[in-house]
Automatic annotation (TrEMBL):
<dbReference type="InterPro" id="IPR036291">
    <property type="entry name" value="NAD(P)-bd_dom_sf"/>
</dbReference>
<keyword id="KW-0521">NADP</keyword>
<keyword id="KW-0313">Glucose metabolism</keyword>
<dbReference type="Pfam" id="PF00479">
    <property type="entry name" value="G6PD_N"/>
</dbReference>
<dbReference type="InterPro" id="IPR019796">
    <property type="entry name" value="G6P_DH_AS"/>
</dbReference>
<dbReference type="InterPro" id="IPR001282">
    <property type="entry name" value="G6P_DH"/>
</dbReference>
<dbReference type="GO" id="GO:0009051">
    <property type="term" value="P:pentose-phosphate shunt, oxidative branch"/>
</dbReference>
<dbReference type="InterPro" id="IPR005900">
    <property type="entry name" value="6-phosphogluconolactonase_DevB"/>
</dbReference>
<feature type="signal peptide">
    <location>
        <begin position="1"/>
        <end position="19"/>
    </location>
</feature>
<feature type="domain" description="Glucose-6-phosphate dehydrogenase NAD-binding">
    <location>
        <begin position="34"/>
        <end position="216"/>
    </location>
</feature>
<dbReference type="Pfam" id="PF01182">
    <property type="entry name" value="Glucosamine_iso"/>
</dbReference>
<dbReference type="GO" id="GO:0006006">
    <property type="term" value="P:glucose metabolic process"/>
</dbReference>
<keyword id="KW-0560">Oxidoreductase</keyword>
<dbReference type="GO" id="GO:0050661">
    <property type="term" value="F:NADP binding"/>
</dbReference>
<dbReference type="InterPro" id="IPR037171">
    <property type="entry name" value="NagB/RpiA_transferase-like"/>
</dbReference>
<dbReference type="InterPro" id="IPR022675">
    <property type="entry name" value="G6P_DH_C"/>
</dbReference>
<dbReference type="GO" id="GO:0005783">
    <property type="term" value="C:endoplasmic reticulum"/>
</dbReference>
Length: 791
């Protein structure tokens, strides 16, 4: 059934203002709207609401409508679902309840579900439309297909539309597409050329829903209206930097199959943030109505971006991502995904106007808050001697606040020490009553604030723009390919990069803070950073042995077996070097179960190890007889010393048992061992010292909260462990930090939490004794296996 509502005729480009394109003035008539994927999530959440709003706005325009939800399910199954969705649409406040009910009723009657799978079904749809046009004696205005389906289906559907659903002569065809538009430049080209076989460029409407956000759409008008203020300062002399930030708190659970193929750069930076960057930096067109000129200016900015290489980006991945991937993709638990869920990219526009101005594009999942904004931070060269709170001392900035965050509503904010912006049009208002909040370092009262009179959903905006044929709000093929052209080399460069793991939420602390150095960007704190060129030329995904940084020191990581192999080789190398230089090698080894594999390796594979010239010392010992299994020495003896040709007088167990008693202060065992060290070890500096780390962060037998700083300069001390046997003898930090080389060996999944924590904590030997390991003149290397590093 058709309900034809013809009232008054009003201009189609309804909303007045700056972004109009006169070329698209169109005749009124009948419009068929088809949402392919019309019962899917996006349709349910945004699209039907958007089309209902369009319908309300157009009711009195002289246009008539019919709406179709297309889908793969048969109509008898999907129709009830479809009508459930339609029942949820709502009117804006300015529509009375009765009128709203009437409009909804009409909207429902104009809508139907159709199975759209085969070419015949598309042909049937076309016949249906044509028959109705005829029966109602209506002229056709156009057909709008909204493809809310996975991108792989685009080409096929576009082909069917071209073959069977083109409108009658004189009417328009608009086909709306949702990202992803390809995966890189090549795939985007392939998709574009496939679509190009079926659709003309002006028939394609690629959605970037960011362009429908009210604040984003207002960037151009703002720049134009405030030209007289901005012209003098919109340049490298005044702009400190530009930040475009989209922070999210959600994870990607449930969407991994999609997300793991894309990652944050493809998902939001290549498109949304890049478009915002263009709007902020491109030359204002002389004729805003000319989509050609707007596109040309945008292309100009894209082509003057300096190439993005690996040094222009840092990437991260939230900690739980890995297990989500394993679960959703049905992978074993040694599967690792390198897909970034966080990225910070530093871009530079190579134009005289912006030379040297850093443009930061940042986005991530599982961050501390949900917020999106673009900030232009200006230089402030005023030095305030006394009153730092005076307005001229504060940051000068313009913030395009897309929404959420502390402010909670979309707004354009100009700090009061810049200028008072012109109020753009009746759709925007000034906000003068403020809640007590701060936005990007300034109390809200230090800003001039403008906000839309009425907040509108981006999709609703864009649907009205599609209808009005405002192509500037959409991504043309040329625009799309130019953007992929920028991002593809970076994506290729990052392909083997190991993302920094972050815990998520406020626990991230300053882990993801970045630091700009010239054209390069890096994480501000050095934690686990591994880049593919540090991986020793091994193919990115095979993960043999990687080198990187952990707590500012060098790190070697690999699967357990390779790691132990590597550590053993490093010890032998140190031994040969020491023997070559001084005829002797002093090796201090710790106890526990972690080094067993290393001991076996040294015993069984290192036949050329200079054991004859090696002295073996203990890092720590439990206060038990050396003949007991619990003794560290006993373990060492059994697993290593028995199997190698080392002179017995080169072996130095700790004297924990003296006068038939264990670790009694007065017996002076610690002093005895210290003396032995001083006598034999040149400068008391061990050549190689092997440490482990316990779950509580202890290393050697130096435990948390045990007043380690009271040990003074002694090299050996009696200490207390929280677990049995409580009494221990241990080298102190004084001894450890004099060593030429210290290896910290951490292995096993059980240590992953600890490693994650250690990657974040500051030096605090009292709480985390291992953070006190800082060889003064030597070198510390962490040996961490993948289980401990990656969980
Ligand atoms: C109601 O609000 C909508 C959305 O802002 C607007 O497009 C429409 O013109 C308004 N209608 C009336 C009757 O004021
Ligand atoms: C659409 O289909 C026709 C033939 O069915 C073909 O000639 C044309 O090239 C196709 N593409 C476009 C953009 O019209
Ligand atoms: C601006 O561009 C539009 C669309 O291309 C065109 O119709 C109009 O004549 C142009 N205006 C001026 C002043 O050039
Ligand atoms: C997961 O993998 C196992 C073993 O390969 C297989 O038997 C199972 O069917 C898979 N499950 C899913 C949901 O793919
Ligand atoms: C002992 O160490 C000092 C300083 O490191 C060095 O100059 C000296 O040669 C070393 N002595 C021996 C015997 O290796």
């Amino acid at each position: 059934m058709f309900v034809t509502v013809v009232l008054l005729l009003v201009a189609l480009c309804a909303q007045g203002g700056n972004g109009e394109e006169r070329e698209t003035v169109q005749r009124s008539g009948h419009v068929s709207v088809v949402i392919v994927g019309g019962t899917g999530d996006l349709a349910k959440k945004y699209l039907w609401q958007g089309f209902f709003q369009l319908y309300i706005n157009q009711v009195s325009s002289g246009n008539t409508f019919s709406f179709y939800a297309g889908g793969l399910s048969p109509a008898d199954k999907a129709t009830p679902i479809f009508f459930e969705i339609l029942k949820t649409v709502s009117c804006t406040n300015n529509v009375s309840q009765e009128r709203c009910a009437l409009l909804k009723e009409q909207f429902l009657r104009l809508s139907q579900y159709r199975q759209l799978k085969s070419l015949e079904e598309y042909q049937d749809l076309a016949k249906h439309i044509e028959k109705q046009l005829q029966e109602e004696g209506m002229k056709e205005a156009g057909r709008l297909f909204y493809l809310s389906v996975p991108a792989f289906a685009y080409a096929d559907i576009a082909d069917k539309i071209n073959n069977s659903c083109r409108p009658t002569a004189g009417a328009w065809l608009r086909v709306v597409l949702e990202k992803p538009f390809g995966h890189d430049l090549r795939s985007a080209q392939v998709l574009a050329s496939q679509l190009g076989n079926s659709l003309k460029e002006e028939e394609m409407y690629r959605i970037d829903h960011y362009l429908g956000k009210q604040v984003v759409a207002q960037i151009f008008p703002f720049r134009i209206e405030n030209k007289k203020f901005l012209d003098p300062i919109w340049n490298k002399h005044h702009i400190e930097r530009v930040e475009i930030v989209l922070k999210e708190t959600l994870d990607v659970k449930g969407r991994i199959a999609f997300y793991d193929q894309y990652g944050v750069i493809r998902d939001v930076i290549q498109n949304h943030l890049t478009e915002v960057m263009a709007l902020l930096t491109m030359r204002l067109p002389k004729n805003l109505s000319s989509s050609e000129e707007v596109l040309q200016n945008k292309m100009q900015i894209f082509s003057s971006l300096l190439p993005l290489g690996k040094n222009q980006a840092v990437v991260g991945q939230y900690q739980a991502y890995k297990s989500e991937v394993q679960q959703e993709l049905n992978k074993t638990n040694d599967h690792i995904s390198l897909t970034p869920t966080f990225a910070a990219v530093l871009a530079h526009v190579d134009e005289a106007q912006y030379e040297g101005v850093p443009v930061l594009l940042i986005s991530g999942k599982m961050l501390d808050e949900r917020v999106g904004y673009a900030r232009i931070l200006f230089k402030n060269d005023i030095f305030c001697l006394e009153n730092h709170n005076a307005v001229h001392c504060k940051p000068k900035q313009i913030v395009f606040y897309f929404g959420h965050g502390t402010l909670k509503y979309p707004a354009i904010l100009v700090s009061k020490n810049l200028f008072k912006p012109v109020l753009m049009n009746s759709e925007w208002k000034e906000v003068t009553e403020h809640a007590d909040v701060s936005v990007l370092g300034l109390p809200i009262s230090d800003y001039y604030v403008q906000t839309p009179v009425e907040q509108r959903e981006a999709y609703t905006e864009l649907i009205s723009h599609i209808f009005a044929g405002r192509r500037n709000s959409f991504i043309s093929t040329e625009n799309l390919l130019a953007s992929w052209d920028i991002w593809t080399p970076l994506l290729t460069g990052l392909a083997g990069t190991y993302p920094r793991i972050y815990p998520g939420g406020t626990d991230n602390g300053d882990l993801l803070d970045v630091c700009l150095k010239g054209k390069d960007i890096s994480y501000n704190s050095e934690v686990v950073i591994i880049s593919s060129d540090q991986m020793g030329g091994t193919p990115a995904n095979s993960f043999q042995v990687m080198q990187g940084k952990f707590r500012s020191s060098d790190m070697v990581s690999a699967w357990a077996e390779e790691l132990v192999e590597r550590l053993a080789a490093d010890i032998q190398e140190a031994a040969e070097e020491a023997v070559h230089d001084s005829g002797v090698f002093h090796l201090a080894l710790s106890g526990g179960s972690t080094p067993l594999a290393l001991f076996h390796r040294l015993a069984l594979h290192h036949f050329s190890f200079p054991w004859r010239n090696t002295h073996v010392w203990m890092v720590d010992e439990r206060c038990v007889p050396l003949t007991e299994q619990e003794s560290n020495f006993y373990t060492l003896q059994n697993h290593l010393l028995e199997h190698v040709r080392i002179p017995y007088y080169n072996i130095h167990p700790m004297p924990v048992q003296l006068n038939q008693r264990l670790c009694v202060e007065e017996d002076g065992g610690a002093q005895l061992y210290e003396k032995e060290i001083s006598n034999l070890v040149n400068g008391s500096r061990f050549h190689f010292l092997l440490l482990g780390v316990g779950y509580d962060g202890h290393t050697a037998s130096l435990f948390p909260d045990s007043k380690l700083d009271e040990l003074g300069g002694s090299l050996v001390a009696l200490t207390e462990s929280p677990v049995k046997p409580h009494q221990r003898m241990s080298l102190t930090f004084s001894a450890i930090n004099q060593a030429h080389r210290v290896a910290l060996l951490v292995m096993g999944k059980g240590k992953h939490e600890l490693i994650t924590q250690l990657s974040r904590v500051k030096d605090n030997p009292n709480k985390w004794p291992v953070t006190g390991v800082k060889p003064a003149k030597g070198r510390l290397v962490w040996y961490i296996d993948y289980d401990a590093l990656l969980g």
